[in-house]
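Before a colleague's protein record goes any further, I have to sign it off. Would you go through it and say whether the fold makes sense for this chain? Take the sequence as given and treat only the tokens as open to question. The record follows directly below this note.
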Amino acid sequence: MKVFKNILQGIVFLTFAAFQAPAQDGHSVLLVVNDNSSVSRTIGDYYARRRSIPKENICHIHTSQEEAIPRDLYNRQIAAPIATFLRASNLADRVLYLVTTLGVPLKIEGSGSMDGDQAAVDSELTLLYSDMKRGAPHVIKGSLPNPFFGKKDVPFTHARFPIYLVTRLAAYDFHGVKAIIDRSLQAANKGKFVIDEKETGENSADEWLQNAAIFLPKERVILDTTTKVLYDQQDVIGYASWGSNDPNRHRRFLGFHWLPGAIATEFVSTNGRTFKKPPDSWNLGKDWKSPETFFAGSPQTMSADYLLEGATGVSGHVDEPWLHQTPHPEFVLPAYYKGRNLAESFYLGILSLSWQNIVIGDPLCSLGKP
């Protein structure tokens, strides 16, 4: 097994090394601002200034400030005006990344389950490019395959992948968003990738975690394959785990020292359910049978807590994605290490679109080459 892992690691290093990321800047971004939200406007102004986003790349919409909205409102007040703006500004093909902001609705109401029609606003927007090209909306029920999933050695272009990569500038408040923007501009390729299994590799997702460790330089990885939880780690640049689905995790915050540019991902169903801040006294809930321990309808970890503690980017889910449709760290972390930006690294590991996934952070954030 050890020999196989060493061979596999060498193959993956060669594959990732072959990729050359094209230079990108604010011209590749469409920034979406909800003019009905003061925090969205403030974030938009700050990000545009810090990342030199051209004025013609800023789309102003007028929609609800609620986190959850009905499908028809999404269609009329979010998807349609963004599509109109992209066409009118001749940006549809030039823009690779859509960036939503705190104050733009987070999720679309609907039915749950694998063939349901509820979804994250951001995940629906990924398909806006193909919808415009096709002249018809995509199928709403259930999820659709992400054509970029696992394509670690291919540059992201619309010709090859007819989608947008959508990330969200969000945290508990403007100061939190300002901090992740500032940290994204300070990112450097140093520090440790902390990978924490729940069990002993018997679950398929534990194998994804182990593969993530294999595909990274051994000296840059802290891997725990026991049932204990890794707390209080120093100089963390990447993190993957089961989050609150690890029965041995009892602390809301990990106590990590996160380096600028650090990202986190976890196998948790509802960690992106809200950006409303829990009380300081709240801790992870006991289980799904104890609603008195819930916050915002769930006992699980909060993606925004990682940002509050010092991470620069994090994935999340507005509702149940099912395990196989959570981000695969064996794609996310090695891509980020090798110089892919934050948006591309996360979407390389996301299996499905028109689904529950969100990616929080500056899409252009990059560690640069190792």
Residues 1-19 have pLDDT under 50 and may be disordered. The radius of gyration is 19 Å. Residues 26-176 form one domain.
